[in-house]
Design goal:
The protein has about 290 residues and is α+β, with helices and mostly antiparallel strands. The protein has 8 helices and 16 strands.
Amino acid sequence: MSKVIGKGTVLQESIATVFTAIAQIISLDLPEAETETVEADTLDNANAGIPYEATGRTEGGSVSGELYFDPTLAGHQQFTDHLLDELNIKKVTILESADDRCTVELRPNKKLLGAKYGKLVPAITKALADADAKTLAAKLSAGEPASVSADGQEIMLEPAEVVVTKSYGDDWAAAEGRGTIVLLDKRITTELKHEGIARDIVRNVQNLRKTAELNIEDRIELSLQTESPQVRAAIDAFKDYIANETLALRITADPLADGAASVDAQIEGDILNIALRRIPGGGEGA
């Protein structure tokens, strides 16, 4: 059973924990239903592009809806959790199209066109600049020739004869292949910056634990000393995370007693002194 909020809701159903069915509601009818939130049966149908009916019932009413199965969306949804975990990504958003985020520039491949069209190359350059770049780029990407008018002549340009440059702005990095575009937001917020610093601190603490030959289960007292306001802010913001990952029962900015293992680590170009000592008999909540 999947929860239907209204028209446009994406339904996801795992079949025997192996197959994921994704359907988009394109119409919805709720006769006698007291609320737009209902339970509806979903169907697993591998026939892409074929709408089909789904029916269900609610207390005091009934629901029917027309669903449209999207296998591409199903594939992306199926691996969303894996992407988040493996690539250290905060959020994955699936878009129907990235056209509104993209600008396209078309330029002639002068090495190929120069010998073929000679003096017409400047006119072809202007024609490409004035053309509907996204439409022409779509044809060229599909391996089809694109037509432009240069000095009153219709010129058919092959994909290799046009250089297509796509840009998604300064805030996004992009990669494209096999009909899929991946956009990565390059903007680093203060919170993300602090989280990255905290992860770096954890990595250095774990290395020091190994150097100190601590057992995996050993609890520690941890000292983190730095003159960097940025590193200190990250420690304060992610103190619980650092403690949980390193099994630190106490984190302090003060020096530890003699005999503690210590190291000076480079964090974002600043020095962080890390010192730790095992807490004898330390356990959860000790």
